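Good morning C.,

I know you're traveling, so I'll keep this short. The sequence:
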Amino acid sequence: MSAVPNPELLNAIESLNYRATIGDVASVSGLNINLAEQGLLVLAAQAGGHLQVAESGDVIYQFPKNFRSILRDKDARLRWQERWQTIWRILFYLIRISFGIVLVLLILASFLAIIAITIAASSSRDDNNGGDFNMPTVWFGPDFFWIFTPDYDQRRPKEKRELNFLESIYSFLFGDGNPNADLEDRRWKTIGAVIRTNQGAVIAEQIAPYLDEVGTQSEQEYEQYMLPVLAKFDGRPEVSPDGQLIYQFPSLQTTAVQEERQWIPAFLRESMYQFSKASSGQVTLAIGLGVTLLFLAIVLTAMVGGGALKVLALLSLGYSTAFLTIPAIRYFWIKGRNQKILDRNRDRESRANFLSRAGEAIQQKHAYDRGIAARHLIQDSDVINSSDRDLIEQDIERSDQIDAEWQRRLEG
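The tokens, ready to paste straight into the viewer:
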């Protein structure tokens, strides 16, 4: 069975309008240059892609616009993967809301158990009105009937939807995930964009604002932090006449895409952890319910001696204790984690500021890297061979182009 293509590779091909070189795909997707080349070859075989060869010897990959449909039809694993993602999205949502459901059920069960014990203890009195007690009404918010909609993981950059009651319970307990889950993807895509914008030749100071660690002072002097970048994008170091290191990426200097200059952040910024996306009112309600369950559990534990009600009392006591303890521990953990993120952001920002001040040494390096920077755009007229067309037809067309060029020169 064929391997499932990397989603970043597929997205890169679509963003490049289904026609690109290896360097285009590597810089847009952030993939290793060798992985990008291997992935393109496999994908071309699976999805009916075509190879085009330019006069310069560079290879361009051309894909049909419906290549995703072709892949889905040919590979059963892709279909199963998509189905499983849908099933897991629903299952995980049910897990999320189960914490709120269990909390409410334990509160109701503990409350009813206390009432039942109280009624049983005072059943000898004729004037007891324990049977006339009113059940408390728990308000879940105006969207109660929509709490089972599994859309918790949909990103809504323009529409900010408030969490419903059950979602807010999970958010209060465990937070809302890692805000920097895509950090590595963003890092390599941004570095690829920096290299492309500078036409395939950069200095180390241009890349440093996007890395976490640049090593000790000695390692910075020898620019060892550039090694992963060179390995990722098939780069090589060049030495300027002044003995300064410049980094050239030949694979990223060839492109089949005419693209406009894009905005690139000055440094890679990590997002801070948020305690909860629940509103302050929802957090207060969650704490109140946890305290309520703890109080009911203590009362019930004192009232019962054994049996099923004792199990209920211990379960409520343990659940309420964990319900209030986990967020407290997480609060202090987030404070420490955010401080480290803040320090890393400051380090990267200071490197960006150092680059913007551009001392004489950096200006000299810039002068040399601009000298070796080059961007080769391969156009349709540069293609001399394409795997989707007959070779004889291409030779005839090429011969006609050469004859037309000679005729134009003779007439000139």
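Safe travels,
E.
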